[in-house]
Amino acid sequence: MKTITVVATFQAKPGKAEELKRALISLVAPTRKEAGCLNYDLHQSPDDPGKFLFHENWTTKAALDAHLQMPHIQVLLPRMDELAVGMPDIVIWEKIA
After folding, report:
1. pLDDT values of the chain reduced to their tens digit, one per residue, 97 residues
2. How many Å apart are CA 87 and CA 63, to the nearest integer?
3. N or C: which end of the chain has fewer CB within 10 A?
């Protein structure tokens, strides 16, 4: 099975790290219940408390696509301008071995 791995990084705007952290943490519980979610883990840089990383694994690309349409994701996207420096940097990987 070719699982899909996503690495998404976020950089908080100055003074917005705690608010961004709370917003990202709020995605974890509902996302972990989604069909096709193998793991959805949020990390914070010990060297830069304003930098966050999601490490996610999905059973299929379709499951990932469905995740991106979920209300809890859609509600956060408009807040990126307020909380983060640009949109998240998202890199998608496909497991080959």
Report:
1. 789 999 999 999 999 999 999 999 999 999 999 999 999 999 999 999 999 999 999 999 999 999 999 999 999 988 999 999 988 999 999 999 8
2. 21
3. C
Asked if residue 52 belongs to a domain, the reply is no
- Whole-Å CA distances, 18 to 14, 15, 25, 26, 84: 10, 8, 10, 12, 11
Total structural domains within the chain: 1
CA dist 65 and 18 (Å) reads 28
Report the amino acid identity of residue 26: S
> What pTM does this model have?
0.93
- Count, residues in the chain: 97
Phi first, then psi: what are they for 79, rounded to 5°? Answer: -85, -10
